[in-house]
UniProtKB/TrEMBL annotation:
Keyword flag tRNA-binding: no
Superkingdom of origin: Bacteria
Entry protein name: Ribose operon repressor
Residue ranges of every copy of the HTH lacI-type domain listed in the record: 2-56
Originating species: Rosenbergiella gaditana
Length: 331
């Protein structure tokens, strides 16, 4: 493999001149520039990205840790992040944690060893092992997305889950449903807790009682939605409307109702949360709370690159994105 010294020798110039031609950071005569470019082409020379990153102390790569899930929401967020990276001239290195704290820490160490310029984290709040590891790299820009187990250590971008839970529940109340049920996500995750809090707040605002039997904890996965709905169908009176706290669980709810011989919305209405691409292709199309996934990825990258490129320190900031009701025909 040719080196910059080989190019300089063939062109009859110094290595610094070759560097100036490649980086276009200093005047070089047309004649010398042509000789250097011909030498580069003849030798099939490619500048070393590693050497360049060491010299500039920047790799133009972003690392991202994501909790592995069958929930399409994460894939849609990652796509938004990757698109934003591409537009800004950065590459993305994605690591799945598989829900395992040890694998998460090893992946994080690998990203740091690869000298990523910044980190995006979408990891379970139960992974407290992250905090001491990240404290060893106080200068590394970090943005938490969707939930924030590392309060005070990083910038945070979340959606207003409390408002989203209220919007979903108020919609069901306004449609005249009487027996409202809620399938939450894991309650160790702050978005799950806040969506349930919004559910309860909307009931109280409408003068409704809160029956804890009608609030079942799910897992944000397809199977969790199905098993939770099967549990709710055993109640008397049976719910006439269900708020699934994400669309993946709403898909599981659809399957449970299909197996029970019930129709949506005639027998039971269903509303989800996230507005994943699949939701409008269900039968019937799913009423849901739209979460701005593209905006989440774009704002996360913008904030992270602002920290990287401007070398901005200062106190961590917190952003909240506003969810919106997307009415379809499942309610």
């Amino acid at each position: 493999m040719a080196t910059i010294k080989d190019v300089a020798r063939r062109a009859g110039v110094s290595t610094s001149t070759v560097s100036h031609v490649i980086n276009q950071n200093r005047f070089v005569s047309d004649e010398i520039q042509q000789r250097v470019l011909e030498a580069i082409a003849k030798l099939n020379y490619t500048p070393s990205a590693l050497a360049r990153s060491l010299k500039l102390n920047q790799t133009r790569t972003i690392g991202m840790l994501v909790t592995t899930s069958s929930n399409p929401f994460y894939a849609e967020v990652v796509k938004g992040v990757e698109d934003s990276c591409y537009k800004r001239g950065y590459s993305l290195i994605l690591c799945n944690t598989a829900g395992d704290a040890q694998r998460m820490c090893r992946s994080l160490e690998t990203l740091i060893q690869k000298r990523v310029d910044g980190l995006l984290l979408m990891c379970n709040e139960g992974h407290a092992a992250l905090a001491p590891l990240l404290q060893r790299y106080p200068a590394l820009p970090i943005v938490m997305m969707d939930w924030s187990p590392l309060t005070g250590l990083s910038d945070v971008i979340e959606e207003n889950a409390l408002l989203g839970g209220e919007l979903a529940t108020k919609h069901l109340i306004d449609r005249g449903y009487k027996h409202l049920a809620c399938i939450s996500g894991p309650l160790d995750k702050s978005p799950a807790r806040r969506r349930v809090e919004g559910f309860k707040r909307a009931l109280l605002s409408a003068g409704r009682d809160i029956n804890e039997e009608y609030i079942v904890q799910g897992d944000f996965e397809f199977s969790g939605g199905m098993s939770s709905m099967q549990q709710l169908l055993m109640l008397t009176p049976r719910p006439d409307a269900v708020f699934a706290c994400n669309d993946a669980m709403a898909v599981g709810v659809y399957q449970a109702l299909f197996r029970a011989g019930l129709t949506i919305p005639d027998d039971i209405a269903v509303i989800g949360y996230d507005d994943i691409a699949l939701s409008e292709y269900l039968t019937p199309p799913l009423t849901t709370i739209h979460q701005p996934k593209d905006t989440l990825g774009q704002v996360a990258i913008d904030l992270l690159l602002h920290r990287i490129e401007e070398k901005k320190g200062g106190a961590p900031v917190s952003w909240a994105l506003t969810p919106e009701l997307k009415v379809r025909t499942s309610t």
